[in-house]
Every structure is written in C-alpha cells, then in structure tokens.
Amino acid sequence: MLNVENINCFYGRTQVLRDFSLSVEAGRILCVMGRNGAGKTTALKSIMGLVRPRNGRVVINGTDIAALQAEEAPRHGIGYVPQGRRLFSELTVADNLEIGLMARGSGGDVRERALDFFPVLRERLTQRAGTLSGGEQQMLAIARALCLDPTVLLLDEPTEGLMPAMIARIREVVLNLKNQGVAVVLVELRIDAVLQVADQVLFVENGRSRDTVNAATLRESPEMLDRYLGVGH
Amino acid sequence: MRSRWVNKATALHLGVIAVLFALQFVLPDYHHVNLARVMVLASFAMGYNIAFGYTGLLSLGHAMFFAAGLYAAGLMALFAGVGAGGGLLLGVIAGLVVAAAVGCLALRTTGVSFMIVTLMFAQAAFLATFYFGEYTRGDEGFVIPSNLRSLFGLSLVEPTTRYFVALTLFSLCMAVSFAIARSSMGRVLAAIRENEERTRMLGYNVFLYKLVALVISGAISGAVGAAYGMLFGYVGATFASIQYSILPLLWVLMGGAATVLGPFVGTLLMFYLVDISSGFTSANMLIVGLALIGLILFFPKGILGTLRERAAPWLP
Predict the structure, then answer these.
(1) What per-residue confidence (pLDDT) applies to B63?
(2) Domains of chain A and CATH, by start
(3) Is A70 on the interface with B (CB under 8 A)?
(4) Mean pLDDT, chain A, integer
(5) Residue A102 contacts B, CB cutoff 8 Å
C-alpha cells in the first residue's frame, strides 16, 4: 500500500531524515513514535510532498510520488490531518467538508460517510469552523480528510490536547477506518493510545527509522519501550 | 437553511440595484453625477475585492490594471477612432492580459514580497505613462472626444445614459462577485486565503487558482478603467499612480473585505466623507482620518464584514 524507502530530507543544510523507511498495508495501523524533534512530523510531510526528499522513494499502490508536487498527493489516495488541525476557521463546517469533497470530485455519499463517523458535525454544518470546540475541530479535520476518500490516512498527533471522551471517540474512528481497509499512519506521543490501536509501532530516533515492532509484543513486554524511548518514556 | 440564505442575499442585492435605479429620478444633478462616479469606482473596488477580499492577495498594483483599461480605451479612441463599445472590450482585454503577465511573475511570491512586486510593476507602468508622454500626454492627460463617447447610439456625455451605463457596469460586477462568492471556486479561494499550505495538501493547485482570481480581478479593473474614461472623458497619469492602488484597498477595508456589497459601502462612505468634509476645512483629510479610525474601532472587519459576523451570517 504505502512504502517509504530510504528517504533523506533536509531543512536548508540540516538533515532531518536519514535513510528513513516505513511501510504500511491496507487495513493496518502503523504508529510512529519517537522523542520531540526525532523527525516524525517531517516524515509525514515528506510523504505528502511538503518536504521534498533528496533521494529515496515514496511508493503508494506501486506509484513513486516522491517527486510530485504536494497538491498531487491526494489524487493518489493520501489524506493528511496535520498537527494543530489547521482548519479553514472563517469557513463553515459544511464549506470545510465541501472543499475536501471537491478536491477529489467525491460525491455526497463520501460526505455522508464522513459525517456518520462524527454525527455531532451534522448539527454544526452552518457554524464557522473557528467557533467549534477543540475536539469538534479535530473531528472536522479528520472528516475533511475522509472527504478525500483516502486509502492511506496520515494523522499527526490527533489526540493532542483533547479530553478523554474525545480521545476514545477518535480511537474508535481510527479502528473503524482500519476495518474498512484504510491504511493508517499515526504519529502519537501517548503510549497508552498507541498500544490500544496500533498493529505495528515504528520507532524513530534522530531522523532514522529504527525498529518496527508488533504492538502485541509491546503490550506484553512494555519494558521494551524503555529501550526505545528512555526511562519514563 | 443554506437556500434560505441564498434567497435572502439575492433579494438584498437585487434590492440595492433597484434602489440605485430609482435614485436617478430623485437625486439633484450634483449627486446624480456623484453616484454614477461612485458606482464606477465601487465596481473597481469589487474587482479588487476578488483578489484581496476573497483570495487574500494584497496587491498594491491595481492602479496598473485600471490604467491599462483606461489607456487602452483612451488611446485607441484618440488615435484609431475606436468608440465606447470597442473601448470597453479593449479595456477588459488590456486588464486581463496585464494581470495574467504580472500574475505569472508576482504570484511566485507571497505576503509582503507580493505587495512589493506588484507595487514595483505598477510604478513601472506609472512611469511608462510619462516615458511615452508623446502619446499619453503624461500628467496633463487628454480628453476623449465627445463624439466617440457613445454606446449603441446613446451619448455617454448625457447624464442619464452615463448613470445607466454606470449602474449596468456596477450590476455586472456585483453579479460576478456574487457568483464567485457562492461558487465552488469562491470556497477554494477563501480556503487559500485562510491557509494556503492546507489547501495545497487537499489537492488544489493554489498558484493556478490565485492566477485565475487575479486575472478576473484585473479584467474587471481594466473594464472599469475603460468605462471611467468613456463616461467621464478624461485619461491621465494620476489614475496609474499608487493612490489608485491604495484607494480600492481602503474602500474594501472600510466596507468589509470578502463581502459583495462591502466595496460599494466603503466607496460611497469614503467619497462622501471626503466630499462633505472638504466643505468645512482645507484640512479635511484629518477629519477623514479620524472618522476612519473611529470606524475601524467599532467595525474591525469593515462595516458589512462586522455586520455579517455579529448579526447577518447569510451576507455573502
């Protein structure tokens, strides 16, 4: 489904990703973990084409998209929910979703499916996105990405700053998407959240992808986390 | 609810046109001419609003698009005997071509750089009107012969015809603005204004959308420039100066950016603020400045922008 193979990315002269690789299949959830500044967000941006890899490949469904412009990534089935939501806050909820739909020419059924995941948004369609609560904004950010009808969904810290009930709802949605065959790449700092949803966990250190470990193994041997993330994580 | 909002908005805009149509029969001569001028200048502001209000392109070069239309119509009238109809068409083409050419280069920049690049192009165009003074007569300008200022056999020198043409132009610009605000394209432009990178990540070619918005804006500005020349008969370098890039920005900010009627409200307000205050003192711009500060304090998003936020969310 999605294979990132040995990419190297730079911000100016500073190298932020070094021979970074990851792989995720349809209907699987890969969590990317690592300390602050390890390169997790840059990895997602490089998949989207927002940070262009100097070499290596980003292959989705057999097509290398590493050299494409960022606006072309959604056409290959990638949906991205960036850190901090980044909604169009002056536009209404309906317009935010509409922009997602128009981008891929998706129909009303895709919109309905996205809204089925977050029924509360139905009651807010005419409300400005900027006036939603933090949790509702996150729901809208994910719903808008779902309007692209993605086969791969990239989520960058979707539970950041949310209350437990909202985190549980988002976890439910991610698991639901997995069951529908969507491949999910999740950047997350909360270990409990990761262990509840992930099939695999990729550890990132100083811009390098280290080991990919089965989440089940980590659940059974949580002491392994110390090795990758340090004492007290 | 959405369709109810659209109906309400359509009714309001048609109502404004109807009121403007009716006003010509009751206004004294002085205000009759003024209102025709306001409608033409408001059309320019509406064109500017498509770039600035809807797309977030803060251009300081719109005088160049206005002047492109003005000079295209004026020079062709003067040297080739082209009439008002041909002049208006040439104005649209001139504005469109100049905006496309400038846009291709200037839109490679954003924010402050975009302002500076558009300003530089506009200043170059302004200086060109002096450089080619042999034809343009520079600062002094020239008058378009009255016999060429007619449309479908109707003389534009005649106040009633002039008012009607100004109203038609105004209505057309309003219709374009309204259609864009309600269209899918309008939503994408608003998304670009809000967050360019996010719009790109959703799969939109942001450069292309911005270019299209600037070209539409430039074409309207060019058309208005040509209409101004034909309706009021004068073509001069002043219209290519930075003042005519700042004024539409001010009108749009006063009335409410990204609202269809805001540019009209802003233009009307500013025009009469200057007009009335000049009757009291020669330091009238001081009064205007104070009034504008007061306005910004109470209407931070412009008059209609603030009204939309506080009481009328249906306002396009």
Answers:
(1) 96
(2) 1-77+152-158+181-227 (3.40.50.300)
(3) yes
(4) 86
(5) yes
